[in-house]
From TrEMBL:
This is histidine kinase. One of its GO terms (cellular component) is plasma membrane. Residues 315-372 form the HAMP domain. The lineage of its organism: Bacteria, Bacillati, Bacillota, Bacilli, Bacillales. Its EC number is 2.7.13.3.
């Protein structure tokens, strides 16, 4: 019986399967533990990094606020009045009241700021008007060590009592007259400590790990309760100072009282602060330990199963494996439907091969679903990013338009001021209307007309434009903002040529298709660029164009959106000569509702 074919097959299969399987389980267990460990560490660092990005954004806003307040005419007038020994009491009182009103107004209009205070070395704070601030910790640290970013504290120099009870962090800025650079004290921008503390307190690692925002000396910035973590954090900071020169973030292993810790840190160099999280290593890697135990128990169970069914592995194994290999090749190339057609038919799950085939079929279904879902999610994300962009007007264009309006007002050109203001207002209303991605051709042409009108006011005789709109095409619908990037490029590259820029925009219903044409006399486009742009339009997906970071981003994004909306019905024609101008025509199907 021992030498029967059945017994020998069972023994052979058992040896051939048990040894490799045990090795695979061991290697997989070790490698998966390393991968998961690396993933956990990366995820933890990313969490620290996300908070660091949030803090950077907030602190940059506070920094900008300090600059704006310092350069304000009210602040500078108050400083000038203070420096001017000949100013009367009434003038000083008026300047102080104007500054208080400005600070109060600025605070009300900025949700991230509790208050703004100014302190004169001679007269004290602007609200309390005493010199008690000279004995405060934040002022001493600023004077002695030039520490401009303060830790959490309460500031009594506030407009009312409720604000004096709130914990704040502050930015201290020298209070100087910008013309003479004379310093008369300090400007203090306060923001709620809770803006950062609430978010950092939500960060958790394992079951007890926390994150803290500290100075490089180990002092808490947000008045967090360090508790029993104080000594571990202190040693971690010492290690960072000694071994992390030039590094912004990293991981520090630390052993304290027979417990292994991991410390994750991220520096904020501008403030000399450091975000540091500490967690016992066992807590962070508890999931890995659980997975190892599960793998061990699962492997033991599977080994018993392998021995029990080894005989049946020699029967009917070639056909299902061959069919599954062919299905795998289709999966490799992304042809999931063909893979499912060639999947071996599973009659019973008593065989490991059939079981694997069944699991692989389920995995293929799941993989197909996940890929399709991810693609749809990506398109939705791109659409969300596009709608977010619709809410923005180019800040340079907006600033230039306001300067134009100011200049016209100075020249008492009320008629042109009204035209420019009305054009800008209509552009803003058009940009902020997100009810639909489709608009009438007349609305898009109207937006382009307002845009070119403002550019005409700016560049005067250097810009000549014409707009022809086919009455039959005005009621058709097109994707919003597909003309603006092309027209903007036409103006830009025509002006670069140094001559008078000529831009012509037209819409025409021809051969039952809507032709939108933008023509200029600019510097033209190289042939290789035209070829690359036309090649992009042959893609059946807009993702490649949306992610493009090369030249002609505005045009490429327009082509991407047209491809997403119109598919194969979209065509583009580009006629260009280097130094001789460019004509771009979008050919779209007529959409009437």
């Amino acid at each position: 019986m021992l030498y029967s074919l059945r017994s020998r097959l069972m023994l052979s299969f058992s040896i051939l399967l048990i040894i490799p399987f045990t090795a695979v389980v061991f290697i997989f267990s070790r490698e998966s533990a390393n991968v998961i460990q690396s993933s956990i560490e990366t995820s933890t660092l990313q969490t620290i990094g996300q908070f660091a990005s949030h803090a950077d954004t907030l602190l940059m806003q506070i920094e900008d606020t300090g600059k704006q307040v310092l350069s304000s005419p009210f602040t500078q007038q108050w400083i000038t009045t203070t420096l001017n020994g000949g100013s009367s009491i009434g003038e000083r009182y008026l300047a102080t009241q104007q500054l208080r009103n400005f600070f109060s107004s600025y605070t009300v209009n900025n949700s991230n700021i509790i208050s703004v205070s100014a302190f004169k070395e001679v007269g004290g704070g602007i609200w309390t008007q005493d010199k008690s601030y000279l004995e405060s910790d934040w002022y001493k640290q600023y004077r002695r060590y030039n520490i401009r970013w303060t830790g959490a504290h309460r500031d009594r120099d506030q407009i009312d009592e409720s604000m004096r009870q709130s914990e704040v962090n502050s930015l201290v800025v020298p209070l100087v007259q910008l013309q003479s650079l004379n310093n008369i004290g300090v400007l203090k921008i306060n923001f709620p400590t809770s803006l950062l503390r609430d978010d950092i307190d939500k960060i958790r690692f394992g079951s007890s790990g926390r994150a803290f925002l500290l100075t490089e000396e180990g002092t808490g910035v947000l008045n967090q309760d360090l508790g029993g973590s104080r000594q571990v954090l202190s040693e971690g900071l010492a290690y960072v100072k000694a071994h992390s020169a030039g590094q912004i973030s990293g991981i520090i292993p630390l052993r304290k009282k027979d417990t292994d810790y991991l410390l994750f840190y991220r520096k904020l160099p501008a403030q000399n602060w450091i975000i540091i999280g500490e967690v016992p290593k066992a807590e962070l890697y508890a999931k890995i330990t659980q997975i190892k135990q599960t793998l061990l128990l699962g492997s033991l169970g599977l080994l018993v199963l392998v021995i029990a069914v080894a005989l049946w592995l020699s029967i009917g194994i070639t056909k299902p494996l061959s069919a599954m290999a062919q299905a795998m090749r289709h999966v490799k190339h992304g042809r999931f439907d063909l893979a499912l057609e060639h999947m071996p038919k599973v009659r019973t799950r008593r065989s490991e091969v059939h079981y694997v085939a069944s699991v692989f079929e389920q995995m293929t279904h799941r993989l197909k679903y996940l890929i399709e879902t991810e693609f749809e999610t990506d398109l939705r994300r791109k659409n969300a990013e596009y709608k977010a962009l619709l809410l923005q007007i180019n800040p340079h264009f907006f600033n230039n338009t306001l300067e134009i309006i100011g200049g016209l007002a100075a020249m008492k050109r009320e008629d042109l001021v009204m035209d420019a203001t009305e054009a800008l207002a209509k552009m803003m209303r058009y940009s902020l209307d997100l009810d639909s991605d489709l608009v009438k051709v007349s609305e898009e042409i109207g937006y382009i007309r307002d845009y070119l009108l403002i550019q005409k006011l700016r560049h005067q005789d250097k810009l000549i434009f014409s707009i022809h709109s086919d009455p039959e095409a005005e009621s058709l619908h097109i994707a919003k903002f597909i003309l603006q990037p092309i027209v903007e490029n036409a103006v830009k590259y025509s002006l670069e040529k140094g001559e008078a820029a000529e831009v012509a925009v037209s819409s025409e219903l021809r051969d039952n298709r809507l032709w939108l044409t933008v023509k200029d006399n600019g510097i033209g486009m190289p042939q290789d660029m035209i070829s690359g742009i036309l090649a992009d339009t042959e893609l059946r997906s807009g993702v490649g164009i949306l992610n493009d970071k090369g030249n002609s981003i505005g045009l490429r994004n327009t082509l991407s959106r047209c491809r997403l909306y119109y598919g194969d019905l979209f065509e583009i024609s580009i006629e260009s000569e280097e130094g001789g101008g460019t004509a771009i025509t979008l050919k779209l199907p007529p959409v009437r509702s």
